[in-house]
Amino acid sequence: MEPVRTGLRQIMSGLLRACPPEEAVLLAWPLICGKEVAARTRAVRFEGEKLTVEVPDNEWKSQLQSFSSRYITEYTNLFGELVKGLRFEVTPPLGK
Question: Alpha-carbon distance 19 to 21, whole Å?
Fold first, then answer.
């Protein structure tokens, strides 16, 4: 199963590199963080080497901040040294 996963990651990497960096970084967020985190968060902006991600509450913000270096490493593996920082903003879901 691992060779398939590696192959898919290489295909995704090639497709994302064809996009402008500002779009590619946002589109790659679910690949970087995983589907469970992606279901509760949203990458919204990439400016000045920093990615901004909306999170539902302060607990999520705190937990994800502790994984920042891991996420940056994953972005570096995918794009080189494009993403150098992450910012997590609490944005409650609509209707609350």
Answer: 6
Closest CA to 67 of 47, 53, 81: 53
pTM over 0.90: no
Report DSSP state, residue 48: T
CB 93 within 8 A of CB 40: no
Contact 61, 38 (CB under 8 A): no
- Phi-psi bin for 34: left (phi > 0), alpha (psi -120 to 50), beta? left
pLDDT tens per residue, range 49-65: 999 999 999 999 999 99
